[in-house]
Amino acid sequence: SSGINAEYGNSNHAAPAPAPAPSLLDMFGTPAPAQPDTVQVNYGLTAYDESTQPNFKNFICARNNGILFENAVIQVGVKSEFSGSQGKVMVFYGNKSPLPLNGFSTALYLGQSDQGLLRVDAQPVSTVIAAGAQLPQTINVTCLGAFSEIPLIQISFNTSGTTHTMVLRLPILINKFSKGTTMSASDFFVRWKNLAMPAQEFQKVFKASKPMDHDSIKAKVSGFGLQVLDGVDPKIDNLVGAGIIVCESTQIGCLLRLEPSRQAQMYRLTVRSAREDTPSLLVNLLSQDL
C-alpha cells in the first residue's frame, strides 16, 4: 500500500492512512460536513426547489432519458444525446388535463458564472397545448468551458383560470461532454503526480447512498463519462478512471480515484485536473449518485 500512497500522494482534504493496519473508518477519517441539498434560485417569477425533482440525480450517470416532472396537469419528459462538445435535448410537454394549456411559454436560465461557458439555443414552442396532446421542444447546447451550474427551464401556462409556473433543472451537466480515455498505469501515475498543486485536486469523503456493489460502481463511473482503468490500482476494490471533457475549442483532461469502504459504507473520491475549477465540479456531481 505504501507504493500506491506514494504514487497518489497525500491529500490536504483527509488525514493520511495510519500504518501498518488501519481500520477502514480510520483510513477515511472524519467525513466532511454534508452540503445542503436544497437549492433555490430566484428568477423573479418563481424559484427552483429541488423537492420538485427528487429523482434528478438519476440523470447524472448514463441516464439521458426520462421524466423530469409530473403532476395532475402536465408531464415533462426529456430525451438527450451528447457527442463531443455538442448536445441535443428534446423536452416533451404532455397535457394530462381535459382542457387546453393556454399561454404556454418556456424560458432558459444560465448561472451568471456560466455566461460564455455554455451556449444554449432553444426552439420556439406553441402557446397552446391541446387536451391530451404532447408538445416537443428542441434545445441545442454547446460546451464552451467548464460550466458549474445546471441550466434551468421555467415553464408557464394557464388553465381553468389558474396560472401555473414552475422551474426545473435540465440534465445538461458538464460530465455529459466527457469521454473516457485509456492509458497505461505508468502514464496514469506520471500524470497524477504532475497534477500536484492543491487547486488541481478535490477530494470528498461521504456516506454511500446506494448498495456498494463493485459492478454497479464501475458502471456509474463509466456512465459518468470516464474510462475505468483496470489493473492500475493494486487494491481490487478501488476504481481509477480517466476522461476528457470536450469543449468547442479546448479539452480538459481529468483523472479519478474512487476508494470504497464497505465496512464503513463510505467513499473517498479524488479527482485531479489541470483546470483548477474542474475537480470540484466532477466530485460534487458524481458523489450525488453513489
Based on DSSP secondary structure assignment, what is the total number of beta strands? 14
State the secondary-structure class: mainly beta
Shape: elongated
Question: Helix proportion of residues, in percent?
Answer: 10-25%
Uncertain stretches: 1-45
Describe the sheet with the most strands.
Answer: 6 strands, antiparallel
First CA to last CA: what distance? 25 Å
Q: What percent of residues are in strands?
A: 35-45%
Give the number of helices. Answer: 5
How large is the radius of gyration? 21 Å
Tell me about this structure.
The chain has 290 residues and is mostly beta strands. Helix content is 14%, strand content 36%. It is built from five helices and 14 strands. The protein has helices spanning 2-8, 24-28, 185-194, 214-223, 278-286; strands spanning 65-70, 74-83, 86-95, 102-109, 118-122, 134-143, 152-159, 162-169, 178-180, 201-207, 227-228, 239-246, 251-261, 266-273. Strands 9, 10, 11, 12, 13 and 14 form a six-stranded antiparallel beta sheet that branches. The longest helix is centred in the middle third of the chain and has 10 residues, at 185-194. The two termini are 25 Å apart. The model is unreliable at 1-45 (pLDDT under 50).
